[in-house]
Write a structure and sequence with these properties.
Elements (H helix, E strand, L loop, with lengths): L2 H24 L6 E8 L2 E2 L4 E10 L4 E10 L5 E5 L3 E2 L3 E8 L4 E12 L8 E5 L3 E5 L1
Length: 136
């Protein structure tokens, strides 16, 4: 390899490292979030209790809250209870539901992000897998 080729290769390598370094430092940081949800028992008699627990966290600068939602068979989801909206957090919700009808009760947790604590239309950040409870 000639001296000229060696210098060209060396310059190209330094340029590639510099571009890569700039690319890494210029990458925006992404918010980290988590959502966990449990509900049980999976089968309960009419009038029985179903215990739910949801925990969420998110480090974005908005106001976050976690909600437990329910629906019966084909009905739409509705909030049962929610944590208070907190900036750069998520929250924890524990609730015992007394079931008042037979059928399949579906439960899930949802992490919402709002622009303020009073935001009436927060954005959904994540949704847990639903848990189905059979009420007999």
């Amino acid at each position: 390899m000639t001296r000229h080729h060696h210098r060209t290769l060396h310059s190209a390598l330094i340029g590639a490292v510099a571009v890569t370094s700039l690319g890494i430092t210029a990458t925006p940081a992404s918010a980290k979030s988590s959502l966990s949800f449990t509900a049980g028992p999976r089968s309960v008699g009419l009038g029985g209790l179903v215990h739910t627990s949801a925990k969420a966290s998110d480090d974005n600068p908005s106001f976050n809250k976690v909600c437990v939602q329910q629906r019966w068979t084909a009905a739409s989801w509705r909030n049962v209870t929610c944590s208070k909206p907190v900036r750069r957090a998520g929250g924890t919700v524990n609730v015992a539901l007394r079931v008042k009808q037979r059928g399949h009760l579906h439960l899930r947790a949802v992490l919402f992000e709002g622009r303020s604590p009073q935001d009436k239309h927060p954005r959904t950040l994540s949704v847990s897998h639903p848990v189905t409870v059979t009420v007999h």
